Amino acid sequence: MRAAENLNEFSDISYIKKTMLHQLQCFFNQKNIEDRRLEIEIEDIDIISWLRIQNYNEKVYWQNRDRTLIAAGVGVADFLKAKRLSDCHFANVNSLPANMRFYGGMRFNVNSVVGTPWEKFGEIAFFIPQFEICKKNAKTFFAVNIIVKEEMNHARLYESIVEELNSLDFSLPPTPRFEDFYRERVNVPNFEEWQEQFAEIQRQFSTKEIQKIVLSRRSTLKFPKYVDGFCLLQHLTNTQANTYNFYLQWHKDCAFVGATPERLYYRKDNRIFSEAVAGTRRRGQDAIKDKELGDDLLSSTKDIREHQLVVENIKQVFDKICKNYSCPSSPVLMRLKNLQHLYTSFEGVLNEKTIDGDILQLLHPTAAVCGLPKQKNMDEIEKLESFDRGWFAGPIGWLEKDCAEFAVAIRSCVVQKNTLYLFAGAGIVKSSCVKKEWNEIEDKMKNFDCIFRKVTE
Ligand SMILES: C=C(O[C@H]1C=CC=C(C(=O)O)[C@@H]1O)C(=O)O
């Protein structure tokens, strides 16, 4: 690592490339090489702008809620793909070098039929980026991840990494503001269809087949020109607080972008943290109105029941995977830019040999995005929703040796050429009101407030 007096040098492109090239040469000159992450400290750079201009199909951006980790990666050093969680070799993650991460996630329902715009995403997919810029503990690093497979020719691996390194672009033109106007918006379901779905659900509540269901909507917005997902991401990082901000692209022209408040879990060694986030009100326009709305949420029987079902469900999972755990007896408010939610945190110690695959299998989908009972609702959602949720409401995050973090991919959209697909859902219980739930979803979509400008001519 370089001394602090040379900070200016850190941003010098030739310094970055030359220093990394030197590290690569030293590494590949060794007789026996194994997986390695090479890192150099660089000056703090605009990570989104860097990511935006790289010429790769595979790109990822991750910013955790307290912004202690911001990472962007391009290219593929290794990947992990599967149709079922049970076929994913998560145990291999434990042999990765320090700080090397698999980023990715999975579909909400790996058994459902794949539809637009999710064709390029797969069921479960993770990758270790070839190149990464990572900001951690107020320091910024440029990293190259090297995965050495048995069958690989080392000289060829070296050459291909060097060639890619040379073509990385550090010119950093700033990401423009999102200033596009849409021409057309189509809601699936429309309000009449939403009412019909609601009536069907009410019937199932009365026969006690389901206790709570989370139904979602998709809004498709058509723009006159290609939508730049990085401008959206930049807007989210500028305007949202207390959210995980993410961007994931497996192919150019199709990206999954979001700013979600909901942690599925964070694991450090055998300690696990999770949370129930369910029950919603808007933020008030001033402190008095805001408190009024918050108090109303905290005392609403309907919202507390909706929330409590999520809490009970996480308890059942923690009973299975933890030696011990704790959670407060009543929810508090989680305040976001536009909305406030009921929130209960969980903290536990995992049973020995519990791997991330087991945790994902049991914790996802939470009752905050699916409802209860889970299997019945997965089938019901597949039947009632006439679009593919894809990765919306699925787990999204990263895994590294001894550590993992997943958010629930809500408050999200897919950007595909000149089309933007927005997704949001709402928890419905017996006492829910059809119009209020429709409006709640509309409020959730307003996370992307910058897009709601229509061409009027
Ligand atoms: C399913 C979504 O939100 C969930 C998380 C928080 C509050 C929720 C609610 O109050 O309905 C939902 O359970 C979404 O934003 O698409």
Automatic annotation (TrEMBL):
This is isochorismate synthase. Residues 191-444 form the Chorismate-utilising enzyme C-terminal domain. Transmembrane segments: none annotated. PANTHER family: ISOCHORISMATE SYNTHASE ENTC (PTHR42839:SF2). Gene3D superfamilies: Anthranilate synthase (3.60.120.10). Its EC number is 5.4.4.2. Belongs to the isochorismate synthase family. It comes from Uabimicrobium amorphum. Keywords: Isomerase. It is an enzyme of class 5 (isomerase). One of its GO terms (molecular function) is isochorismate synthase activity. Pfam families: Chorismate_bind. It catalyses: chorismate = isochorismate. The keyword Isomerase applies.
